[in-house]
Fold Small ribosomal subunit biogenesis GTPase RsgA.
Amino acid sequence: MAQAQVIKMYNGFYYLQTGREGDELLSCRLRGRIKRHKGAVVPGDYVEYELLEDGTGVIESCLPRKSLLLRPAVANIDQVIVTFAARQPDLNELLLNRFLVLAEWSGIPEIVICINKCDLLPEAAQESFLQAYRDAGYRLLLVSAHEKQGIDGLRAQLSGKVTVFAGPSGVGKSSLLNAIDERLQLATGKISDKIKRGKHTTRAACLLPLAGGGTVVDTPGFSAAELEQLDKGKLAWYFPEFRQYIEKCYYNTCTHSHEPDCAVKEAVEAGGICRERYEAYLNILQAINERKKAY
Ligand code: GDP
Ligand code: ZN
């Protein structure tokens, strides 16, 4: 049976990228027996399908997923590009850390940081910009959609993968996608228009195939508000550079905040962990604690 990826979902139809002539999508219905499970098939899924005589298709089954992002549901995402602006708005490191923790939590295998609007950042500042995050092991891409700086590198990073761009609005995610593939022509700038659109329609996510190879998901990823649902015992694990210290703490339930003989705190003092990252950790920990108290 033929296999293909679900690119979008609309009004009960599933649209498959089958690689047929003209890049045309194949519209499909679900076979009755898989219809009963809500969310049985979502964008990003690979499915088995059969072609019907009228030129449409029927999805017979869904292949196992590598990952699943909820709200909106998208399967098989390979990478998340956490996108912020260097300026306008000024980079909010706490928010950046929140997005990184969400990305780590989601289980999506590859996480990259992309800083847009580098045309607004003095060149001398670029070399060491966000060094703590590079030290933590994140690949950092400094780009400018307007100046077309770093766009080839970003395009290469997307090639052959399903990617979601996560980050606050106004940092230039749509502008970057337009710079990568000018056929996309996503609306940019007028934030009020975008918010309006978002309010009146709750549509499913959609995958956009890129000219340079790879696919992007047309949603902002996840919202930083979801963070309070996270299990605080796991929080430190989502700071990759903390991992080597966690098991050396005296208490195996150590939250790395007030406990004595904490290897994480010692690493902060000794310079092995960047203080800003540790403070972001404490801040998120507190947000989770306060959430728990509210119940
Ligand atoms: P999104 O909400 O993240 O999709 O952001 P948009 O792509 O809509 O861009 C928000 C604003 O930032 C728009 O006014 C863009 O013109 C501006 N912008 C986008 N990229 C750049 C850039 O590389 N440099 C500068 N200076 N402004 C940019
Ligand atoms: Zn500790």
